[in-house]
Structure formats: C-alpha cells, structure tokens
C-alpha cells in the first residue's frame, strides 16, 4: 500500500468533533482525567480548561477577582459573560477545542518541526482611517487571538503538552489604548490564551529567524510583507531567492485546511446560528421590499436585521440585484432603484463569531411572481432541492459530481419549458458558475481543498444552482433579463443532509406570504 502524504494523513477523520477525530486517527488523546492544565500557561487559561472539561490537580480559585476589571483586546468570558460561557476562548469555542486543534496539528508533524502563523495587519482606507479588522482565519483557528500584527509559534518538543506555544503580541500601552482601545497584552496572552511564553510583537522580526533555525522543518505561509514582517525576513523564512537557505520550509495553510474542512459540533452550532440569523433577516427584508425601494436600502435593511440578531458584520459584500442586474454574478454596486414586475436577487449572509453564512434568495419586488418568473424559478428550485438530497457521505459524491447533476437538471428543466439553449450556452451564460463551494470561517473556505474530493460527514458546503436568461433573441422574450439563484448552506451528514439556511423562505408560496405581510420602514 502506498503511503499517504502528510497532508493526506493529517485529519483524515470524518467525524464531527476533534475528540472523535483523534480517537479515529489513533492519536494520543488529551483526556479530561489528565492534569493538562498544569502543563499550559496561566491560571485563567487553566480555569478555562477546567470549565471545558479538563481536570487539574492544581487548585484554581473560581472567583472573578481582578479579571473582571481587566481590559482585553477582544471579548473574554470574564468581561463579556452575556456573550460567552466560562471556559470559552471565543464565543462558542472552548479552550479545550483550541488546545485539541494545536495538539492534533503538532502530533502529525515530524520531530524538529516549528509552525509559524501570523495575523493580518491593520489595513487603512486613507490616512489614519482603518478598515474594520478581520483576522487571518488560519491564525484565528489555531489560537482565537483577534488583534493585528501578532504571531503564533508552535515548536514541537517532548514536553507533556507536546509543543511550546509562543505568542508575539502588542504590549499594554496606556497612551495608545486611550486612542485605539484595549490591548490584551503580554501577560494575558499567557493567562487567557495559554501561551507558554509571550513576547513583544516588535521583537518578532529579530527573534523568529533564530527560532526557526533551530528546527529542521519550518511550516510557514509566505505573507504580504509589512512593517511587522519585512520582505527580507519573509524571504529567509520561505527560502525565497536571494535569501540564506536555513531549513526545509513547507506551506502551513494546506495542513490547517485539512483540519478546517471538517467542522466540529461547536463549529456547526455557530454556523447554524449564523444561518438562522441570516434566514430571519431575509424574511424581514422580503417584507421590506417594494417598488419604491432602492437596492442599497434593501442592503441596509438586511445588514440591520443581521446585526440586531447578533451578527458582527456581513460575511461579504452582498449582491442586491434588481431585474437584469442579476445577470451579473457578482453585482455589488447595489445603487439602482427597484421596479414593479422585476425580481430581486439577493446573495448575502451575516458573519457570527468568525463563521460565515452565504445564502441567496430571489423574490418579486411587488410580492407576486409572474407566470414566466414561476417557470424559471421552478427549474432552479427543483435543482436546488435535488442536489441537497445528495449531500451525504453515504452517497459518496464530490461537489463536482453534484454540479454535473445540477447542470443536467437545469437542461431538463429548460427543455420542459420549450427553451432550446444555443450550443454550450448553458454552462457559459445561462448557468456559468459552480453549484457550490466549501463554507466556514471564510465564505469560500479551504480554497486548496479540491471540489473533486468525496464529501465527508462534517463538511459544510453551499448548494446554489442558478439560471440567467440574457437579452438575446434566441430565447423567449418573456424570459429575457431574468436572473434567479437559490443558495443554501448544508452540513454533510452520514445519511442525511442538514440545511443551516432552512429559515430563509424559498418555496413560492412562502415567499409570497412573506412579501404580503405587513411591511415596516
């Protein structure tokens, strides 16, 4: 039997929890009966592990104490009990989950390995005006730290923990924090996030080459150079031309993507909440829609409804396309008035606690589908529902194979309507995009994972067939200029799919009912 590659070995599990994954892989388990908390950083992190199910022989006072007055650069279970449970590092995800992620990663690397993961930097739209910060998702997956210009270094060793965890973070600074808000700081990186050592991020460029040079295998992704990680340092780490060869450097992201493509039960729970929030926002946005609205007003209403229900931001720039604007797949200008008799295609989703939803619905601006609109909508809806039925591990299909099914169903539906597409027009103009993609912390998640891989339990994907009839005399005039897409978020189950976006109406009768409901301004 041919040996599998490291990426193939790594996280080949198809269960929904990291604990089950470790057991299935015959990896040494971190069990609740061990004194893991004594291995890792400060007392608050030990307390988080205890709350997550670990035991410790070290007595930890469970009072809030000074931590309740401490300020951190992100929500913690001490400062935001209305958002987080005790023991969580980020909302919905425990210290145990992050510890297991790092442990599984390091256990599957050879001896003499070091992992270097860097955060995103602060990005500016103009002088001193920054964009809302969104963390690098691989970095966030490993540690949950949500500040810019930071780094995580994991060095494999023979300690009970199996690795040393070093974080480079911005130190506390009262003058800067007065202007920019609280920082977590060096001590809290150990106390809260479980680092064995925490170092001023300003020293990263001076320390990292020496740290990496002590290891035979360096796992690192070549980043965009910045003041935090200058070009010359990045080149040395990645053996780029004009740099000194120092070790065997390998990409880190492909390994993390192998982990991320299978979601844990906690991750699915967050994504289910994100889908429910966005689904309810679609209901309210349908009720809000009428021919007097502008596309950007509909966008604003959806954004408002998501945020009022807990989403921190939009997962991406929404498509709010009235009428023939829907023929542009990624129409994001969202600046045209809506018109009576047109359809409105909206591709949007809120992000919740670092996880995206990605839903598309199409509905009539005036609340009633025309017969021609119903004809085409029925074709897309049938393809959507039939493809969702295939989203199980038992079926053993890939996303590419499901796409082929959706293409066949679309052609059959057009034929029933008497529409004869021009040669190759279905996959070039009428339905030019793929039926789906992986979904998770990123909207287009785990981009290096092939869509030709058989779907496994715990994967989350989108199913989004569409139909876009151009203004072309080759097609019946009553259908020209109509664009329809129906997109759902689906968890792959063993024998049955689980639709996360079920709250968003997609049956014609349900959509028309929502549109006929009392509208508010």
UniProtKB/TrEMBL annotation:
<dbReference type="Pfam" id="PF05195">
    <property type="entry name" value="AMP_N"/>
</dbReference>
<keyword id="KW-0479">Metal-binding</keyword>
<protein>
    <recommendedName>
        <fullName>Aminopeptidase P N-terminal domain-containing protein</fullName>
    </recommendedName>
</protein>
<dbReference type="InterPro" id="IPR000994">
    <property type="entry name" value="Pept_M24"/>
</dbReference>
<feature type="domain" description="Aminopeptidase P N-terminal">
    <location>
        <begin position="93"/>
        <end position="229"/>
    </location>
</feature>
<keyword id="KW-0378">Hydrolase</keyword>
<comment type="similarity">
    <text>Belongs to the peptidase M24B family.</text>
</comment>
<dbReference type="InterPro" id="IPR036005">
    <property type="entry name" value="Creatinase/aminopeptidase-like"/>
</dbReference>
<dbReference type="InterPro" id="IPR029149">
    <property type="entry name" value="Creatin/AminoP/Spt16_N"/>
</dbReference>
<dbReference type="InterPro" id="IPR052433">
    <property type="entry name" value="X-Pro_dipept-like"/>
</dbReference>
<dbReference type="Pfam" id="PF00557">
    <property type="entry name" value="Peptidase_M24"/>
</dbReference>
<dbReference type="InterPro" id="IPR007865">
    <property type="entry name" value="Aminopep_P_N"/>
</dbReference>
<keyword id="KW-0464">Manganese</keyword>
